[in-house]
Amino acid sequence: MSSSTPFDPYALSEHDEERPQNVQSKSRTAELQAEIDDTVGIMRDNINKVAERGERLTSIEDKADNLAVSAQGFKRGANRVRKAMWYKDLKMKMCLALVIIILLVVIIVPIAVHFSR
To answer: Which residue intervals define the domain v-SNARE coiled-coil homology in the entry?
Structure first.
């Protein structure tokens, strides 16, 4: 090697061509490096996916909290409506009972007065 070129441990030298084991070793090293690079890429993708999933989980938690608050409001409103309808139904039953009593009085009183003479 000349002194003008920097030392490269992966570059083939004149002596390496004579030894096929060294070439096989370097190709195996290159294969391993490619596998490592692929693994690193996959791990980075997985880390990004975990981060996205964490953001989505936070969003889902916020939506669940909002839903719980809405459910409580709905329950209170439903109870108010139920009580209002019960009171309205009670008033209707009382009016119906009053009408029946008035009709009975209108029918029975003249008959009673007529037979009492």
So the answer is: 28-88
Instruction: Return the closest-CA partner of residue 63 out of 73, 74, 71.
Output: 71
Domain ranges of the chain: 16-85
pLDDT tens-digit series, residues 23-76? 778 888 888 899 999 999 999 999 888 888 888 888 889 999 999 999 999 999
Average per-residue pLDDT for the chain: 86
DSSP result, 14-81: TTGGG-HHHHHHHHHHHHHHHHHHHHHHHHHHHHHHHHHHHHHHHHHHHHHHHHHHHHHHHHHHHHHH
CA distance 35 to 51: 24
Residue with tokens 């390496």: 16
